[in-house]
Specification:
Largest sheet: 2 strands, antiparallel
Number of domains: 1
Number of helices: 2
Mean pLDDT: 84
Structural class: alpha+beta
Distance between the termini: 32 Å
Strand content: 15-25%
Radius of gyration: 13 Å
Strand order of the largest sheet: 1-2
Shape: globular
Amino acid sequence: MSVQPQPAGGTFRYPPEGFSGTGTVASRNLPCLSAEVQMACHVGYEPDEKDRHDVALLAERFGLKLPPAYRQAGAS
């Protein structure tokens, strides 16, 4: 289990089951965090444009719902 600092000064505790993802870099499959845990890492602070971009891609690719701080007015 790993604990990482957050941009707003808090910490995020990675759950062990979150290390079940697989990603691809240069045609190689590599272990990574699950999409759900990656999404959870992006809440609890005011997102910047890079965060908004990353979360939008995660939501689109994996069919995840955007966290409230990432939704535009009127969007769900």
